[in-house]
C-alpha cells in the first residue's frame, strides 16, 4: 500500500469523468498541473446517475473518524447530469427535482458538520453536463434531448447558488465556444455526448479559473501549496536525509 504522503483532488462523476484520464482529458491535465503537490483520484463511473452516486460516495469518501488515516481531499469535483437527463423510461433517468436533491445531498455530506463525512478541509466545485449534439449522438436505444440536458445544466447552477458552491458551467462554455450552434459542438464532443481533448481543455480551464478566483489557496503556482518534497537543488547533498522530509501545505 502506498503511504499517506500527498493530499488529493477527487473527481466524482459519470463516464465523462471516468474518461478524464484519456489523452488530453481534464484528469490528466490536473495531474500534470498539480504534480508533486496533490494527487488526482478519478472516481468516474460510466453510466451512473445521482441516485446511484450517493451509495457509492458513501464508500469512496472517508468518514470523519477515518480521515486522519488517509489523504485529505483538498478539492472535490462533482459532475453528474448527462445520464440523469436521459428521457424516461430509461433506467438512467432521474427527475429534475430529485436530481437537485441528490446534488445537494452529495454537497451536504461533505459540508454539513452533522454529517458522518464532514470534511472542512474539502473545497467543492459542481460541474454542469455539457451540451449534447443530437446530430452526432445517433443512439435510438439511449437517446438524449438537447433542451433537456440544458435544463439539467441550469439545475446544477441552482444547486450551486443554494449550497454556496461554485459551478463550472461547462454547458455554456462549450456552447459559446461552438458559436451557440448544436451542430458545431461536434468540435468538442467525439460522439455527441462525451468530450474530446478540446472539450476537456475547456473543463480544465474553467476549473482552474474557479480555483484561482474562489479557492486561491489551492493554486498550483503562487498559492499556499508547495512540492511535498523539496526540489533537489535545495538539498544539502552532504547530508540530505534531514531535508528529505514531507512538507505540509502552508495553510
From TrEMBL:
Keywords: Hydrolase
Keyword Hydrolase in annotation: yes
Annotated SUPFAM superfamilies: SGNH hydrolase
Residues in SGNH hydrolase-type esterase domain copies: 12-201
Keyword Hydrolase among record annotations: yes
Pfam families linked: Lipase_GDSL_2
Annotated GO MF terms: hydrolase activity
InterPro entries noted in UniProt: Iah1-like (IPR045136), SGNH_hydro (IPR013830), SGNH_hydro_sf (IPR036514)
PANTHER family: ISOAMYL ACETATE-HYDROLYZING ESTERASE 1, ISOAMYL ACETATE-HYDROLYZING ESTERASE 1 HOMOLOG
Protein name: SGNH hydrolase
Organism: Rhizopogon vinicolor AM-OR11-026
Amino acid at each position: 500500500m502506498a503511504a499517506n504522503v500527498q493530499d488529493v483532488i477527487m473527481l466524482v462523476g459519470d463516464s465523462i469523468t471516468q474518461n478524464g484520464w484519456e489523452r488530453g482529458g481534464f484528469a490528466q491535465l490536473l495531474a500534470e498541473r498539480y504534480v508533486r503537490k496533490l494527487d488526482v483520484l478519478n472516481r468516474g463511473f460510466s453510466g451512473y446517475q445521482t441516485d446511484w452516486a450517493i451509495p457509492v460516495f458513501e464508500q469512496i469518501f472517508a468518514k470523519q473518524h477515518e480521515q486522519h488515516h488517509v489523504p485529505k481531499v483538498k478539492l472535490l469535483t462533482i459532475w453528474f447530469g448527462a445520464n440523469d437527463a436521459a428521457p424516461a423510461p430509461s433506467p438512467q433517468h432521474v427527475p429534475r427535482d430529485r436530481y437537485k436533491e441528490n446534488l445537494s445531498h452529495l454537497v451536504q455530506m461533505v459540508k454539513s458538520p452533522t454529517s458522518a463525512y464532514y470534511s472542512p478541509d474539502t473545497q467543492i466545485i459542481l460541474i454542469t453536463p455539457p451540451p449534447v449534439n443530437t446530430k452526432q449522438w445517433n443512439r435510438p436505444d439511449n437517446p438524449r434531448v438537447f433542451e433537456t440536458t440544458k435544463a439539467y445544466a441550469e439545475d446544477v447552477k441552482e444547486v450551486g447558488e443554494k449550497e454556496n458552491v461554485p459551478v463550472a458551467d461547462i454547458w455554456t462554455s462549450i456552447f459559446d465556444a461552438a458559436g451557440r450552434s448544436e451542430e458545431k459542438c461536434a468540435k468538442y464532443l467525439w460522439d455527441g455526448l462525451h468530450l474530446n481533448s478540446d472539450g476537456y481543455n475547456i473543463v480544465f480551464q474553467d476549473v482552474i479559473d474557479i480555483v484561482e478566483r474562489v479557492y486561491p489557496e489551492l493554486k498550483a503556482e503562487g498559492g499556499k501549496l508547495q512540492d511535498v518534497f523539496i526540489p533537489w537543488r535545495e538539498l544539502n547533498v552532504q547530508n540530505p536525509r534531514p531535508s528529505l522530509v514531507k512538507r505540509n501545505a502552508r495553510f
